[in-house]
Every structure is written in C-alpha cells, then in structure tokens.
Design goal:
258 residues, alpha+beta, Alpha-Beta Plaits, 2 domains, 4-stranded mixed β-sheet, two-stranded antiparallel ribbon, 28% helix, binds iron/sulfur cluster
Length: 258
Amino acid sequence: MDISRREFLRIAGASTIVGVLGGWAAVELLAPGKLEEKYLLKPGALTAKRWAMVVDTKKMDEVTANRCIEACHRIHNVPDIADPKHEIKWIWLEPFENAFPDQQQEYVAEYLKEESFILLCNQCDNPPCVRVCPTKATWKREDGIVMMDQHRCIGCRFCMAACPYGSRSFNWMDSRPFIKERNPEYPTREKGVVEKCDFCAERLDEGLMPACVEVSNGALIFGDLADFKSEVRKILRTRYSIRRKPHLGTNPQVYYIV
Ligand code: SF4
Ligand code: SF4
C-alpha cells in the first residue's frame, strides 16, 4: 500500500509514543468510521423512547411461562444449576404472595392467589442497582433498559443488595459446565460476576422482539410506552394493571394486567 511521507511520519510518531509508554496507548489511533460503527444503530433495529413490558396474566399459564423461561435461558446461555444457593435466573415463576407481597388484602381475586407469576428485571425508571454500582458495570440506557457489562463487574454484589425484586444472580462458580446447549452467538459468564435480563437488548439491535415475547402467544406484550399508539399503551389504557412494589419509588416498567 502506498502512503505519503507525511502520512508515514504521522503514524511513526504515534507508534513511538505508544512504544515509550510500554504498550499503554497515550494516543489512540482510531480507524476512520470506527466510532460510527460502534454507536450507529443497525438498519432495522427496534428502537423506543421507553421500552416496557406487559404481562397478560389471563393468558400467561404455566406452560406458556415455562416456554418463555426456556427460550430466554437457552438463548442467553443461562446455566441450569439445581442448587438454589447457586441458581442463575433471568426470568422465573413465583407464587402471588412472593411476587406481590404488598397486594395481600382480603379481597384479591381468588384466581390471582392461586396463580404463579412470571418475573424478570423490571427495568426500573429509578433503578437502585445502578445508583450503588461502584464501577458503572450496570447502567440505564436512554430507552430505559438497565444494562450489565460483565467485563466491568467486580462482583461486589451491591446491586443485588439494592434490587428489591431479586432480579439479579451472582455466578458463584464457572457456570459453563451447567449450560445445556451453548449458544455460540451469546457470551458466557465467568465466576464472580452478576447477570440479569436486559429485555434482549441484543435482539432489539437485530430488529427482533425479546425471546420470551416471541414464544408467549400474546401473553407478553412489548413496546414503546412513549408511543400513544403502541400495543403496550393500548392495553394499559383499557385494562387494570399492577406492578411489583411500586411504593418503593423504583417505577418498574413491567406491568401485570389482571
Ligand atoms: S428490577 Fe432490580 S435489577 Fe432490575 S432495574 Fe429494578 S432494581 Fe435494577
Ligand atoms: S456486582 Fe458488579 S454490577 Fe453489581 S454493583 Fe458490583 S460491580 Fe456493579
């Protein structure tokens, strides 16, 4: 490849600085378009001002819920560890009294008390997990999704103590031997890091709905809460809904229509 003398001197100068610093790059040489590539949305990516999920509790029976759990955990390489002390979960089932401990009044409909409810990270508007993280390994995106970066996670578990919903799991050991069928498209996690649901951020980038929504037969509705015409807005306009522990001020963005 032909390069001009001026170009050669520019690159040589930058290389010398890097060399003098023993590999610590004082000057970062970014290829043209590198930043664009990282930050530009892919064509066809699904976007929203505020992502939210609605669970239709009348349609979400146990068979459907287990299908959602299986799809999520398979795609995200969530290990299947039987020991509850080491369990990793992104989406799971709980009886009514555990899911909604603040809704235990006498006149709650009988069918609700007998049901199990599908739970996941609520992608809270005011997430305490984000506030306490010392390394910014967990943060909230503009569209409301609370993300996790395992490379920055130091395993202090402050976020787990701060989350009032039990939505985060800690890898007490290398979870890879417990993955049933490894998905090569998604990273696995090492011992000592936290993980949780992120509304399938990686699938939204590809223009796909979250995996659980896709297999839920309409029991999970996902969309933009800021869009008056979205399915989530339509259903929340016409049906009563509850959220988990709203009195804590976290402003959960997973709604359960009852
Ligand atoms: S449910 Fe828990 S982990 Fe998810 S955003 Fe809210 S506080 Fe954070
Ligand atoms: S365990 Fe990881 S994500 Fe959680 S607070 Fe500590 S560094 Fe942040």
